[in-house]
């Protein structure tokens, strides 16, 4: 390989295909987390908002594509999806969704301890212990999927 070849031209492996047992375990974890969220009373819209916000922070185009479609199927509106990155600056999200989004951001950027403490304090006022746990697990899981897709450079294909 020439030293003039841009780093982005390096062929990536799809680690999900290269190590299918590990990927299958991650998928199983995701399914368990989705069930835990439902049992805790976090609806599918809240789960998809967490998936999308974490994917926005991480810059995962593939997961943004997948979870935008999932959110729309779950009944989410294009208006709320359009302003999700600025959710704090709108009144479009419920207190439960706002608390879950704050926890998701704190989970994704754990070095910001002030934001972490603030998110947890807000969550304690609005969410049950089960909902707090579920929201964090959703964020942990999508963070893992983001890294799989980012490192694999999973492509986003145009809709037909």
Structural features, described:
The chain is mostly helical and 160 residues long. The chain contains eight helices and no strands. It has helices at 15-18, 20-40, 44-58, 61-73, 78-83, 95-108, 113-126, 129-152. Helix 6 runs antiparallel to helix 7 (113-126). It is globular and about 45 Å long.
Quick take:
With 160 residues, this protein is mainly α. The protein has helices spanning 15-18, 20-40, 44-58, 61-73, 78-83, 95-108, 113-126, 129-152.
Shape: globular
Low-confidence parts, pLDDT < 50 over ≥5 residues? none
What is the count of helical runs?
A: 8
Distance between the amino and carboxyl termini: 36 Å
* β-sheet strand percentage: under 5%
In round numbers, the mean pLDDT is 95
The count of DSSP E runs of length 2 or more, i.e. the number of strands, is 0
Largest sheet: none
Radius of gyration, CA atoms, in whole angstroms: 17 Å
**What is the H/E order?**
HHHHHHHH
The percent of residues in helical segments reads 55-70%
Spell out the key features of this protein.
single chain; mainly alpha
Give a topology summary.
Layout: H1 15-18, H2 20-40, H3 44-58, H4 61-73, H5 78-83, H6 95-108, H7 113-126, H8 129-152
């Amino acid at each position: 390989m020439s030293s003039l070849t841009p780093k982005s031209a390096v062929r990536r492996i799809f680690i999900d295909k290269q190590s299918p047992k590990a990927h299958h375990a991650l998928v199983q974890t995701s399914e368990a987390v989705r069930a835990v969220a439902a049992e805790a009373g976090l609806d599918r819209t809240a789960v998809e908002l967490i998936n999308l916000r974490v994917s926005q922070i991480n810059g995962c185009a593939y997961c943004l594509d997948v979870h935008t479609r999932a959110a729309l199927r779950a009944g989410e509106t294009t208006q709320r999806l359009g302003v999700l990155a600025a959710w704090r600056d709108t009144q479009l999200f419920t207190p439960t969704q706002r608390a879950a989004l704050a926890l998701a951001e704190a989970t994704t950027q754990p070095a910001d301890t002030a934001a972490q403490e603030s998110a947890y304090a807000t969550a304690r006022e609005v969410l049950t212990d089960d909902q707090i746990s579920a929201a964090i697990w959703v964020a942990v899981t999508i963070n893992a999927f983001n890294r799989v897709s980012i490192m694999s450079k999973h492509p986003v294909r145009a809709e037909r």
